[in-house]
Amino acid sequence: MHNRWKYFNHQPDNLYNHFAEKAFGFLEQRAEEIADISTLDGWKERQASVKEKLHKLVGPFPDKTPLNAQVLRTVQKDGYRIEYIVFESVPDFHITSAMFIPDGLEQKAPTILFVNGHTDIAFRDELYQQVIINLVKKGFVVYTYDPTGQGERLQYFDEGTGKSKIGGSVQEHFHVGNQAFILGGSFAKYVIWDGIRAIDFLVSREEVDATRLGVAGHSGGGTQTAYISAFDNRVQAAAPSNYITSHKRLIQSIGLQDAEQNFYQGILHGIDHGDLLAVRAPRPALVMATSRDFFSIQGARETVQEVSRIYQANDRSSDFGFVEDNDNHTYTRKNREALYAFFQKHLDNPGDASDMEVEFLTGTDLQVTKTGQISTDYDGKNVFDLIAEETAYQINVSKKISHHDTKSLQAIVETSKKISGYQEPESNLDPVYSGGRQHNGYTLENHFIKGVGDYVIPFLLYRPEKATGKAIIYLDPQRKTSSVATGGELEKLVMQGNMVLVPDMIGYGEMGLNNKLTNTLWYLTMSVGESLTGTWTSDLTRLTLFLKEHEQITEITGIAHKELSPVLLHAAAYDSSISTVILSEPYISYRSIVASEYYNHDFYLSAVPGAIKHYDLPDLAASLAPRKLMIIGPTEGAGGYLSSETTNSELAVVQNHYKKSDALENLRIVSGQQPDGHRLIQEWVR
Q: How far apart are CA 397 and CA 630, in angstroms?
């Protein structure tokens, strides 16, 4: 299509732009609300609203339990000592940390919680040591800890390689963060809670003045600084570096980033970076940025301008600062010195704010555990165990939702439309025929129609010479052109007299390369309260509408392979004109993804964020009764084929509804790997 239609030649960005425009709409509404605030009471009202939203989006937090803190050893350095500490933010979830204490303290000291960015070695990084040691030399107690997936807290540690089985810190965060979003929560909750519990530990120490607490961090540490300071009122002064920008500029530039840097449906509810700062005003804050950072400096400037208004309304303008330097994504000397001066002023610890040369410590100097990894020193939980506990809780909640009758299932189906972001098809398809070629026994045609957004859906239409009036919509993640093979599955279906429609769903094939389907895109859909599957389903029902309105079709069958199976399942649940459904090697449920410690990363993209709180794929399959449904070779979340016993257990709700509908003959489930799956499909559609 794109070689001949220049107007549609920007298709690789269409899917991203589709959701970006939705985000911009919510952000514009937020901007208008803030522009209307003209009084201190108005700001206080917004603060209360934002605080409530933040706790709703992130929480609920766990109950506070004993920290069981252990000081493993103490090492004396020049002018300060380091205590190496392990504590538990929740029972058996251990955190490695280090406390830097100035020599000669005669009274409780101002204290900085230093949180770390996305370096694999966390606070052992020399850039972070530069700040930590300078602060302790200036009379601050400094406490720092390994974030989840960093330093000595690799959550998927491979003892054989000494590395993470998942990848670097960002990859570990993505991996568990995706599961948290499917559960309708955020990985941010775990990150924030670790910080809150770190403060709990700090205030228990005799060296710490609990009335003079500050939080600082760079990059991902800037994220944590903004979060912890927004959620914990004990933080007197906050100094995030190289993180604060705005969602608008972030989406326009590099896109939404790491899992913990996003809240479930955050943009939908009007939350932006500025809210993390404004919600804690007028307590002191300093925003640090660099002009060549990948976090947009324009967004930082605009957010600072916005937040400064609430400090002005409180007559506390001097308590909100902004420092900018001309550099890349780093803690520059200028910004570091501004940081020291900020804490010296607002935590009442005057002194020299110049950045001193320091003697860096080696990784061994800063090793907390004996083995160098918490997982090999302690028999405790990893972050997947916390996800598993949340999964069990959500499943217990969902059991209270009736799945036992048709009326209940229809209610679940209606809920799934809202959760997925599905839009009912309209008759503005604007179909275009763009050529075809004759084959032996059929014609292969090229078409496209308008999608649910500002893009088109290109598809191949196999038109048999001996048509039966039956049509098949065929979904393949390998893109539509992979289906053009003489003697292949599709050609055999066509030679049976079936018209076969094979689309490139947006994000696939002509409509975008597979590598465009990334966490960044999925997080964007989640943030605006929608999903890729919701959009694909909306487009798929437009394709069925095309067949009904423009072709002489009496029966429509849907066939989907692997990770596109949930799309067909949603579409069939919403569109009764799809009379037969065939799922080839589908993953069995969303629950199977969150229940798999090492789930298949091809699967989460078609998962609907937040679905498990309300429904799962077997519910949609059950709603199809008494229509024909075949499931071939279902897999679990990691991609392995399920046994017959496990399949029957997972699909019990489906079997029960087909039995109640007296339609068991229309349900066929074939477990295990099926090399002859093509033959099974051909037989089922005859």
A: 29
Euclidean distance between CA atoms 138 and 352, whole angstroms:
8
- Report the phi/psi class of residue 672: left, alpha or beta, with left for phi > 0 and alpha for psi in -120 to 50: left
How far apart CA 274 and CA 50 sit, in angstroms, is 11
Helix 519-527 × helix 532-550 angle, to 10°: 80
The amino acid occupying position 533 is: T
CA–CA distance, 425 with 98 (Å, rounded to integer):
57
Task: Dump the DSSP string for 23-82.
Answer: HHHHHHHHHHHHHT--SHHHHHHHHHHHHHHHHHHH-PPPPP-----EEEEEEEETTEEE
Give 422-427's long-range contacts (Cβ < 8 A, gap of 24+): 422/534, 422/537, 422/538, 422/570, 422/574, 423/452, 423/534, 423/538, 424/538, 424/541, 425/452, 425/538, 425/541, 425/542, 425/544, 425/545, 427/545, 427/549
- 403 neighbors 415 (Cβ within 8 angstroms): no
Domains of the chain are 57-393 (3.40.50.1820), 401-684 (3.40.50.1820)
pLDDT digits (tens, 9 = 90+) for 73-127: 999 999 999 999 999 999 999 999 999 999 999 999 999 999 999 999 999 999 9
Closest C-alpha to 94, from 387, 392, 385, 393: 385
Peptide bond between residue 609 and the one before it cis (omega within 30 degrees of 0) = no
AA identity, residue 194: D
**490, 516 in Cβ contact below 8 A?**
no
pTM: 0.95
Q: Which two tokens stand for residue 543?
A: 């394709």
Judge contact between 519 and 605, C-beta under 8 A. no
For residue 176, what are its two tokens?
A: 């568990």
Please state, in angstroms and as integers, the Cα–Cα distance from residue 87 to each residue in 146, 150, 366, 404, 648, following that order: 11, 16, 16, 46, 43
Which tens digits make up the pLDDT trace of 360-407?
998 889 999 999 999 999 999 999 999 999 998 888 777 766 566 778
| CA–CA distance, 192 with 562 (Å, rounded to integer) | 36
Distance separating alpha carbons of residues 330 and 282, to the nearest angstrom: 27
Cβ density class 480-513: b for 16+ within 10 Å, e for less: beebeeeeebbbebbbbbbbbbbbbbbbbbbbbe
The one-character DSSP state at 587 is B
- Name residue, tokens 């500490």: 85
